[in-house]
Write a structure and sequence with these properties.
Layout lengths: L5 E5 L4 H12 L3 E6 L2 H13 L4 E5 L5 H14 L3 E6 L14 H29 L2 E6 L11 H21 L4 E8 L5 H10 L3 H9 L10 H11 L11 E4 L6
Parallel strand pairs: 1-2, 1-4, 2-3, 4-5, 5-6, 6-7
Helix pairs in contact: 1-2, 1-8, 3-4, 4-5
The structure holds NADP nicotinamide-adenine-dinucleotide phosphate.
NADP nicotinamide-adenine-dinucleotide phosphate binds next to helix 1, helix 4 and helix 6.
């Protein structure tokens, strides 16, 4: 039997990350489910194992260098060298600029930018050694600017530059790097936005869907399917790209 390739998905206890972990397991990867709460990770990993896949749940704060080093070492030990990395962990600390605190700024930069940097640095060591790798970073349509999200939009635009640089540096080792930039996806994150705007989640979805060309909001599985392609072996000539998955044209 050929050995299973190992994929790491961060922020995978729920939302887009959980859907991606489950999708990659169905695609044949052994999956490391990383998130802040190890018990929540284990729930997703358990579902994967119940379905006949291989998975391990690992509690890691991606913004913490020591935790990242220990977590990636544990993945390599328990599953094998990670050759696929999906940097998905994310938070929002939305506010208009004049009300945004330094903590709001630092927290968002810490998880999205520093977290992706630390995770990528730890995993690329395995990828370059294996002469094979696939990295996908979660950007956002908010990278183009979004009211109340100065911190988040800056981080998500930053991830696009980070992705292109990874593609340039790592290509010769057989490693590709791409970004997926979702539009509105129905998860706890968009539910929190509805709460901040003081509208019901249902009304928020209906109102948003009316502005999207395909006339619906996105589901975590829409993003997981796109990531599934980008981490596949046959996507080896696609690198440094930003794929907007938003139900309509954005660039
Ligand atoms: P979500 O439901 O809020 O899930 C995010 C996950 O990341 C949570 O499980 C969270 O853990 C985890 N996380 C937060 N900080 C972390 C850290 N320091 N270390 C490890 N894990 C951490 O969000 P989502 O909607 O699925 O979003 C996933 C990604 O897609 C994010 O990068 C987000 O910015 C991006 N995105 C989402 C949308 C959308 O419409 N939903 C659109 C564009 C881009 P806790 O639950 O313990 O906090």
């Amino acid at each position: 039997m050929t050995e299973q390739r190992v994929a790491v998905v961060t922020g995978a206890a729920r939302g887009i990350g959980a859907a991606t972990a489950e999708r990659l397991a169905r695609d044949g990867f052994a999956v490391a489910v990383l998130d802040l709460d190890e018990a929540a990770c284990e729930e997703v990993a358990g579902r994967i194992r119940d379905g006949g896949g291989s998975a391990v749940g690992v509690g890691v704060d991606v913004a913490d260098a020591a935790a990242v080093a220990a977590g990636v070492a544990r993945v390599a030990d328990e599953l094998g060298p990670p050759v696929v990395l999906v940097n998905n962990a994310g938070i929002i600390r939305d506010n208009l600029l004049f009300k945004m605190t330094e903590d709001d700024w630092d927290a968002v930069m810490g998880v999205h930018l520093k977290g992706s940097f630390l995770m990528t640095k730890a995993c690329q060591a395995h990828m370059t050694e294996q002469r094979y790798g696939r990295i996908v970073n979660l950007s956002s349509s908010s990278a183009q600017g979004n009211r109340g999200q100065a911190n988040y939009s800056a981080a998500k635009a930053g991830l696009q530059g980070f992705t292109k640089t990874l593609a340039i540096e790592l290509g010769k080792f057989g490693v590709t790097a791409n970004a997926v930039a979702p539009g509105f996806i129905q998860t706890d994150m968009t539910r929190a936005t509805a709460e901040r705007l003081k509208v019901s989640f249902e009304d928020f979805i209906t109102h948003t869907a009316a502005q999207i060309p395909v006339a619906r909001v996105g589901q975590p599985e829409d993003i997981a399917a796109t990531i599934s392609f980008l981490v596949s072996e046959e996507a080896g000539f696609v690198s440094g790209q930003v794929v907007y998955v938003a139900g309509g044209p954005l660039d």
